[in-house]
Amino acid sequence: MTTTFHRCARDVIEVSGPDARRWLQGQLSQDVESLPVSGESWTFVLSPQGKVDGWGRIRRTDEDSFAIDVDPGAGEVWTSRLDRFKLRTDAEVTLREQVTMVAVRGSRPDGFLDAGWPGVDGGDLLDTDDAPESILGTAVEVDTSGFEAMRIRSGVPRWGAELDSDTIPATVGQWIIDASVSFTKGCYTGQELVARIDSRGGNVPRRLALVTSPEPLQRGADVVVDGEVVGEITSVSADRSGSVGLAFVKRGVTPPVDGSVESCVVHVGALPST
Asked: Is the peptide bond before 36 cis (omega within 30 degrees of 0)?
């Protein structure tokens, strides 16, 4: 794969204070207490019912300080959710919106955070809209559409598209559960639903799938297989082969399978798992 880079932005939630580590341990799905300083991992913050209030990458920046970077626009949702459960807790929550970032895909340069996208190496460098030539080397810059197509092909969910307050974590892929959830850390808000679904083999009513077509597709359009509406396009982008999109499809649909979206022939395929 050709190494590419894209200039974009992330929201960053900073949490610090004497109670930060203990408090986040009870709020997030990841084992925060086991993270070493400078360590990073992915995590959910869930509602008491186990639905997704947010998904992001947490880094331990000091003994009692953490930074969580999330999709642009998701930071306010995160801070509102965390503040709502911050009772008698000595920890400060600060939001930095639209923090600039360089995202590299095809390789992970030294000093970059792990992008964590299935099927492709990659790294992210926050607090910059540029990177030294020595780091980028011969990497090719891609525009927003090209970067979005790579995200979709990797099956990485985006807040407001595949993720919202009605999303059940397991529907976006087992790889996200493996990367974002600790089943040994003890109790945290929303744990019951995640643990129950995992104990049943991750069996959920719908799962995220890759939809490709040589024709343009539209977000929100129905995906039809064997005459039945089985899902809806949640993200779409132009791609070298035409269009590429994501859709939650019913449990009875087993990719790969052909179908249609409006008048377009589509292929419903599986997403990378690691």
From this structure: no
DSSP 231-249: EEEEEEEEETTEEEEEEEE
Rounded Cα–Cα distance for residues 264 and 184 (Å) = 46
Encoded tokens for 164? 């919202």
Outline which parts of the chain fall under CATH 3.30.1360.120. Answer: 4-154
Q: What is the pLDDT of residue 273?
A: 82
**The overall pTM is greater than 0.85:** yes
pLDDT in tens, 182-219: 999 999 999 999 999 999 887 899 999 999 999 999 99
pLDDT at 70: 98
Q: What was the pLDDT predicted at 166? A: 95
Backbone φ and ψ for 233, nearest 5 degrees, come out as -65, 125
CA–CA distances in Å: residue 128 to residues 10, 22, 72, 100: 11, 31, 15, 5
Query: And the tokens for 2?
Result: 């050709």
CATH 2.40.30.110 intervals, the chain? 206-269
| 206-269: CATH architecture | Beta Barrel (2.40)
Q: Which fold has domain 4-154?
A: Gyrase A; domain 2 (3.30.1360)
